[in-house]
Amino acid sequence: MLIIDGKKVSLYLKNELKATIESCKASTGKVPGLTIIIVGQDPASQGYVRNKAKTCKEIGMNSTLIEMPAETTQELLLDTIHELNNDPAVHGILVQEPLPEHIDEFTVTLAIDPSKDVDGFHPENLGCLVMGHLDKCFVSCTPSGILELLDRYKIETKGKHCVVVGRSNIVGKPMANLMLQKLDAANCTVTICHSATENISFYTKQADILIVAVGHARFITADMVKPGVVVIDVGNNRIEDPAAKSGYRMVGDVDFDCVSALASAMTPVPGGVGPMTIAMLMKNTLQSFKRFNGL
Ligand code: NAP
Predict the structure, then answer these.
(1) Which numbered atom of ligand 1 lies nearest the CA of 237?
(2) Residue 38 main-chain phi, psi, to 5 deg
């Protein structure tokens, strides 16, 4: 069974991005800039934004972290976003979710200039993805990272049946739409499953490529897949583990030990999809910088 190693691929990718940023700097005197806004003190979100800022630094990109208190009004957050929309040194704007309950996430997404929406969540970017104008949009980072993995591992996708489990706006829906596109690492026949799908195994067993983003630890078991399937596990679930120093460990949405005995290729958790998501955020920000500078 082939392990699809997202950690390794993300390192290659980050080195490629670093080299491109250095050459952009040499020719223009400028580097890409990503601004991350975090509202409140959610520890998991704080960890994610720290990681993103650290990766920017590693590859020579500017990053600015704007930390706002949990009681920040929606109006102030929107004003901050509008200022960043007009700042030429900012090429990417990311508002870390979840936001406090009094702030409407969709209103915030709509406020970000689509040309700086490096998360790819704005309806204009999602719409361009659906219509196949990938050169004109930002594709959200987890789905585009998965496509990059399928591409780099030369997984045969054309005409294959791809089953996506999960229909969130940030993973499932863009993922399914991406696998449908006439692209080298896609061009699939696509089925989407969700919590109202009846007899989900009926669909998952037909998958040549199974992409799972449900948020339930080890949801997909060996009896739900066919031999030879390629499995992409997006899940990131914390489970108790008394043997671990921290008292917990991360597992995916797929039961790795059992399913890997049947699969032909599979991403591990951790070290599969996760590292690719951050790398693609960097790639999108560089892409934005290039567009703004006509490169
Ligand atoms: P989400 O917004 O909670 O969406 C989960 C999706 O799974 C929903 O569409 C839901 O269906 C579906 N679902 C839930 N229970 C189901 C069931 N019993 N049967 C079939 N479908 C079911 O989650 P998300 O943001 O897409 O994230 C999913 C997982 O991926 C989480 O573990 C998250 O931590 C992880 N994640 C990882 C990365 C990464 O970079 N590695 C990035 C993003 C997310 P309904 O729509 O019907 O409710």
Answers:
(1) 32
(2) -125, 130
